[in-house]
Design goal:
The structure is a single chain. By secondary structure, the chain is an alpha+beta fold. Helix content is 32%, strand content 30%. It has eight helices and eleven strands. Helix 7 runs antiparallel to helix 8. It is elongated and about 70 Å long.
Length: 271
């Protein structure tokens, strides 16, 4: 991915733990690597096809002057998020905020915080087999799109499938969606659990009836194995109700463990 670099932009702002830092202010030095695709701008020689670094510098100065944070970590986190939300073509940002002569009563040239933040692609499985199944799923899609830093990029058709695991229950309505998100996997899981709870989801019987079921199937190419979070979903390759709708929106997404695409896993399962 291409990079536009801004180095050592000096800004006078009001961040710090001590009250006098928030009133008197001090100098901060900002560096940013903006990761984007510059090819179209380079071929056309057109600034409109790129990210205007002058506008980015002005935005960073205005934002850091307008807001006050105790921690450099907070200033960096919020500024990076705002930039990623503001510029659609900005895929990732490495941001460093330096604080020269930090007041620690010891000789110190500068202290800094550097973070790397970006946009991620997650695939979410959707399911319901109670009440207004389609309404529960459509409402979940809308709620996911309303989360700050989340954009629903694609939604599959909904299919009706027999229950999995515990078979003595109503058929399910299932689908999948593609989500662009700034959230970490753990943060995304919390949001999915919140939306399930708002739909009246009760976790009383494993694989039992549910108003709404939301599972993270993929998150970029991440591989996570924790007690309550497994990515890729541990049993996705055995589930037609996941692979069939997922093959509509991400047919060539490759499983980072098994090495097979979604279409290949679906064809294997059908056989």
């Amino acid at each position: 991915m291409d990079r536009i670099r801004i180095e050592d932009l000096e800004i006078f702002a009001y961040h710090g733990v001590f009250p006098e830092e928030n009133t008197l202010g001090q100098k901060f030095v900002i560096s940013a690597d903006l990761y984007t695709d510059t090819r179209k701008a380079g071929l056309k020689d057109d600034l409109a096809e790129s990210i205007h670094y002058g506008e980015v510098c002005a935005f960073m100065e205005l934002y850091l002057k307008k807001h006050t944070y105790k921690l450099l970590e907070s200033a960096a986190e919020h500024l990076a998020e705002e930039l990623l939300l503001k510029y659609e073509s900005l895929k990732m940002i490495r941001l460093e905020i330096k604080k020269p002569w930090a007041p620690i009563r010891l000789p110190l040239k500068t202290v800094s915080v550097e973070i790397l933040r970006g946009k991620h692609t997650a695939y979410i499985a959707l399911g319901s087999n109670m009440g207004g199944k389609e309404n529960y799923i459509r409402d979940a899609v809308n709620k996911l799109g309303q989360i700050r830093g989340c954009t629903v990029k694609a939604v599959s058709n909904l299919i009706e499938t027999p229950p999995y695991g515990v078979t003595d229950q109503d058929d399910f309505l299932n689908g999948c969606l593609e989500l662009e998100t700034l959230l970490t996997p753990r943060e995304l899981l919390r949001e999915l659990n919140r939306i399930e709870a708002e739909a009246g989801r009760e976790r009383t019987v494993h694989w039992g009836p549910r108003t709404l079921d939301l599972d993270i199937i993929f998150y970029d190419d991440e591989m996570i194995r924790e007690k309550d979070l497994c990515i890729p979903h541990v049993d996705m390759h055995n589930r037609r109700f996941v692979l069939e709708p997922l093959s509509q929106i991400a047919p060539y997404m490759r499983h980072p463990v098994y090495g097979k695409t979604v279409v290949e896993m679906y064809e294997t399962l059908k056989r």
